[in-house]
Design the sequence.
């Protein structure tokens, strides 16, 4: 196990940004920068031992600052959408940025993906960790409360990238944190993800309107094109859910324990990735809005990466029946997600 660091670039304000390289003994190498907590690359071997980078991204800090569609970052204070950019808490209405049509997305104009986190590294026999801390000030992007956040990325000797999220507040607020990595298990530069097989361990999903805002109804997946309870080829289903998958799956984990949420397998490389989480939902997004953006030695077109964003449901602050995203002073927000990499020899 090893962890090293170097300078990634300099912010316009003059602050230095670092990039950390976490590696284990089975050839997995993960690069994470403390700008936005972005996972910049994940190198993993395929079934023949050939190494490829399985996440979309950029080579430079400037590109992450100027044009990133949330590649690899931590999303917060509230991942996903909040309808009309407003919500009420304890009789006060809070107004947020409307940064996607008439709605709020991924924490606003300067979300947690665009701030500098304080890094701290640690190492044990079986793992290496990067702990990132960020204090989101009371009123930042319209949200109430000073929110002290900690996100710990850990690479283990079992080929897992584990992400633990913690937060505390001094005023009642809402929190929903996730990671927005776009994966392509054939390699970030290998084009459409249609050959990937995916299974999501969910029987239901949250219905949305034409602006991706939940209607409040939780519907059965059985019999719909969104049903992924059995392994399905992404390319087979994607045409039926135009412009692609972008849905919150309601995971089968009623008691908030850690469960397997998804499993993805890419046959040509043999690479497999399992996702485990204690969150109640997962957004399966197939890069529907990628439009030929130039990245690390590649041009990323529509459907060239997929995200598995573990989360509470979109717009929960406005839908009392959904699991609560409210955090009060004295409470501890904690959640965890693990992406586990493997290869299948078939
Ligand atoms: C959302 C998409 C959105 C994308 C932006 C995803 O998490 O589900 O609707 O367009 O993020 O990158």
Sequence:
């Amino acid at each position: 196990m090893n962890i090293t660091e170097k300078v990634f670039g300099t912010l316009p304000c003059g602050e230095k940004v670092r990039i950390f390289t976490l590696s284990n003994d089975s050839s997995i190498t993960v690069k994470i920068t403390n700008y936005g907590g972005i996972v910049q690359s994940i190198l993993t071997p395929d079934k023949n031992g050939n190494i490829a980078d399985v996440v979309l991204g950029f080579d430079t800090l400037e590109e992450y600052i100027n044009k990133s569609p949330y590649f690899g970052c931590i999303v917060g204070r509230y991942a996903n959408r909040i309808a009309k950019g407003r919500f009420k808490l304890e009789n006060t209405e809070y107004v947020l940025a409307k940064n996607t049509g008439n709605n709020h997305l991924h924490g606003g104009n300067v979300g947690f993906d665009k701030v500098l986190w304080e890094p701290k590294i640690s190492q044990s026999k079986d793992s290496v960790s990067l702990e990132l801390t960020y204090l989101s000030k009371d009123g930042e992007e319209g949200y109430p409360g000073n929110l002290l956040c900690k996100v710990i990325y850990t690479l283990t000797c079992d080929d897992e990238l584990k992400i633990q999220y913690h937060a505390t507040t001094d005023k009642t607020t809402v929190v929903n944190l996730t990671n927005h990595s776009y994966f392509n298990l054939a390699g970030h530069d290998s084009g459409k993800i249609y050959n990937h097989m995916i299974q999501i361990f969910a029987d239901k999903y949250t219905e949305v309107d034409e602006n991706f805002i939940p209607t409040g109804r939780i519907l059965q997946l059985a019999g719909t094109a969104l049903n992924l309870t059995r392994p399905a080829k992404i390319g087979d289903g994607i045409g039926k859910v135009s412009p692609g998958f972008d849905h919150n799956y309601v995971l089968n984990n009623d008691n908030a324990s850690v469960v397997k949420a998804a499993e993805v397998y890419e046959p040509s490389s043999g690479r497999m990735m399992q996702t485990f989480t204690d969150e109640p939902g997962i957004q399966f997004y197939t890069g529907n809005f990628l439009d030929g953006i130039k990245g690390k030695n590649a041009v990323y077109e529509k459907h060239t990466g997929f995200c598995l964003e573990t989360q509470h449901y979109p717009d929960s602050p406005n839908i009392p029946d959904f699991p609560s995203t409210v955090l009060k002073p004295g409470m501890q927000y904690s959640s965890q997600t693990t992406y586990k990499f493997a290869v299948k020899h078939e």
Summary: The mean pLDDT is 97. The chain has two helices and 29 strands. The pocket of beta-D-glucopyranose is lined by residues 69-70, 212, 246, 283, 285, 289, 307, 309 (CB under 6 Å). The chain has one domain: 2-343.
